[in-house]
């Protein structure tokens, strides 16, 4: 993953990144676990809609720029896997895959690169929704396969709450997710005011 340097850069990277996740998540239809089938369907439904939205924005605002193109997958081919191997491999690779999207979204927001309010709101939603899914996937991985060999979770600069916590070693949702009964804090402005 390279640094997000503009709104166009974010959108053009995120489209193939989402498409990669959709391809992998479709394989979970074959999972023996209802939780995994539900997770896969949720990713397919949500990210397919998000890809459509991003492609619409790219067409409307960046028609003269190159179309998004895959820069290499970060997900393995799951088509030959089944049972525990399918579920474990999916979780082991999708957690860091989601973290890449979270980091890209946070970079866009931290550096004030979003040129349209819709894209800033979208990036916040991607960040927060995928963070919730990372927590769920880590819980599944630990419950079914043990905590050893848990994928490494990088620190996300400027994202509060990325410290060890009671629910997941190495991660807590933090104030950017909001606290029940209290609204989530506003994004810091690019000028620091």
Automatic annotation (TrEMBL):
Coiled coil: none
Amino acid composition bias (Low complexity), ranges on this chain: 168-181
Region (Disordered): 168-193
InterPro entries listed in its UniProt record: DUF305_CopM-like, Ferritin-like
Regions of compositional bias (Pro residues) in chain numbering: 182-193
Residue span, DUF305 domain: 8-69, 73-140
PANTHER family given in the database record: SLL0788 PROTEIN
Name of the molecule in the record: DUF305 domain-containing protein
Organism name: Streptosporangium vulgare
